[in-house]
Design a protein that fits this description.
single chain, Thrombin, subunit H, 3 helices, mainly beta, 7% helix
Amino acid sequence: MRKPLIGVLAAVLVAGATTLAAPLAHATTTATTATTATNAVKAAAIAPAPADAAVDFTGTVALDNCSGSLVRMPGSAGSDPALVLSNGHCLESGMPGPGQVVTDQPSSRTFTLLDGSGADLGTLNAVKVVYGAMTDTDISIYQLDSSYDTIQAQYGIAPLTVSADHPAQGADIRVVSGYWKRIYSCAVDGFAYRLREADWTFKDSVRYTSGCNVIGGTSGSPVVDANSGLLVAVNNTINENGQSCTLNNPCEVDQSGTVTVHQGIGYAQETYVIPPCFGAGNVLDLTLPGCVLPRP
């Protein structure tokens, strides 16, 4: 997996990032509650980008060691506390072990908000980790101390909307890294029934075509459907050197147990499973019907 970089080292390397031809060395061994009519009106102010909108850095953030994005659920209201999405393996507390789920943990993490061109706009502040896991998926979700309305009023930036639908094979996608301020273009090549990497197993992962040869620091980047502008997955790993099922070399395992390795091919974790777990007010509720995210 594209594990986090050391912030200080990465800062030194940023200036030369566009000349890198290979992945960087890693720093470590790694609701059923209906939306009211009032909320629907408020949510309209943060509606998703129109179809065929050009994908840029709007809504992306840079962490100290990873990438991420300012996100809303389909039913989120402008007055709701804003959320940031990244990878579970980017958590400041370290990578969760298999079966470990982090919820409702205080956090003082900061995120650099970018404008459409990739310029730094300001700092967003977390108050807690709403959810984090590397079981079945690889996600971290932070709650900020500001609402979407407040962020839009201050910076003119709207969040990316997490799609409620499964991504489509062949879809034109963009992997947008706020850390490196780089956008990768490719397509959804297919889906891995199980993606195994060292001790971790992810379900129904997106497999990229070769254009998205992601590197260290792109972890947590939003994967955006280029036609709808919706966020459909979160970038998390690539097979670096052809090894099978080892750290930084994920392998695919099909329903019959057959293992396949795609050297140089990257993967992302689907995000359509996230919205069913959030009710009114952007409140996480893992007991909601349709919520399949692993529980603590």
